[in-house]
Amino acid sequence: MKRRRRKEHEVFSLSFLDAISGGFGAIVMLLVIVKVAEPTVTRDRGIGLENTAITLAKELPELEQRIKSQQQQLADTQNLLALVQRDVTRLAPGAAAARSEREAAALTARAATTIEQRLAVARQELTAEMLRLQAVRPAAANQLVGGIPVDSEYIIFVIDTSGSMQSIWPTVVRTLDKVLNAYPKVKGVQVMSDMGEYMYSQYAGQWIPDTPGRRRAVLQRMASWAPFSNSSPSEGIVAAIRSFHDPDKRISIYVFGDDFTGASVQSVLNTVASINPRGRDGKPLVRIHGIGFPSLFSMPGAGAGAIRFATLMHNLASENGGTFVGLPSTR
Predict the structure, then answer these.
(1) Whole-prediction pTM
(2) Which fold has domain 141-326?
(3) Could you read off the pLDDT of 197-254 as tens digits, one per residue?
(4) Burial, 226: exposed, middle or buried (Cβ in 10 Å; 0-12, 13-18, 19+)?
(5) Contacts 24+ apart (CB under 8 A), 183-186
(6) Where are the domains of the chain?
(7) Alpha helices in 154-233 (DSSP H)
(8) How far lies 322's CA from each of 132, 148, 212, 260, in Å?
(9) What is the mean pLDDT of residues 142-167?
(10) By C-alpha distance, which of 198, 207, 203, 209 is closest to 239?
(11) What's the first-to-final CA gap in the chain, in angstroms?
(12) Is residue 184 classed exposed, middle or buried when 0-12, 13-18 and 19+ CB atoms within 10 A define those classes?
């Protein structure tokens, strides 16, 4: 009887080994691929960063220079702004003052123009009225000349010697000569500036004897006489009254001028009224006449001073027995 042979079972067959070999092979291939690729990626990245660093290093000095330039420009701009702000602060008060001065000058010019126009009309009306009165009532001989009484025995001239008057000085000298000629003979003469300064210091407080020679000497000295003046006759008028008033003498003061720069017309009127009282006959001790010269009307904006002078002298003459005459021209 034959022995039955057991069937032998093989644990590791060819198919199983193939599968295992293939799996190991795949793992090995993966490991090889990973190991080979990783240094390549790392090396490539390092090369890129290095190039970027080199490029930035080359550009850095230029960038630093540009930053310094921008900072310098900013500093210059800030300095300029500070200078401009300082100039604005410094010039602001001056600009405001200049604007105020321009506005005040424009207002003064308009006022002066209006005053000059009104004065011209008033002068025309006054001239027409004087002509009418002269035709109706002729002046008595040796009593009225040009509407001014000439009955005084002593005459004092108080003359504005300022620059505006000096500009028409020949006219002033001729007017002085005409007034002297209206008095053929007086007992004494005196000439003072509007500040009270004497033409002849040796005759201070005294009367200059009236002779033809003295009159010529006064006119000759007058041609070059130019003491300081503040364009205000009040000082000279007060000095003349205080130095020469005498109830026993008939005295007249002639004020030559074109401007009044004093603070107040009324204060001058009050001062003169206190030192020039009226005598027993009701007349003031000293007559005060005024002759106004139109020199300021040729100067833009200066006519207001001439108006103040005319106002002062008109009131002084009216209150002190005198007459005020405004000359129509400087010729």
Answers:
(1) 0.58
(2) Rossmann fold (3.40.50)
(3) 999 999 999 999 999 999 999 999 999 999 999 989 999 999 999 999 998 899 999 9
(4) middle
(5) 183/150, 183/152, 183/155, 184/142, 185/210, 186/152, 186/153, 186/154, 186/155, 186/210
(6) 49-114, 141-326
(7) 163-166, 169-182, 212-222
(8) 20, 7, 26, 19
(9) 80
(10) 198
(11) 187
(12) exposed
Structure-token pair, residue 214: 């003295």
- Give the H or E element holding residue 154: strand 154-159
Q: Any idea which of 8-12, 92-96, 210-214 has the lowest mean pLDDT? A: 8-12
Least confident span in 124-128, 172-176, 180-184, 221-225: 124-128
Please count the residues of the chain: 331
How many other β-carbons are positioned within 10 Å of the β-carbon of residue 262?
Answer: 17
Query: For 42, how many CA atoms within 13 A lie in the half-sphere containing its CB?
Result: 6
| Side chain identity, residue 38 | E
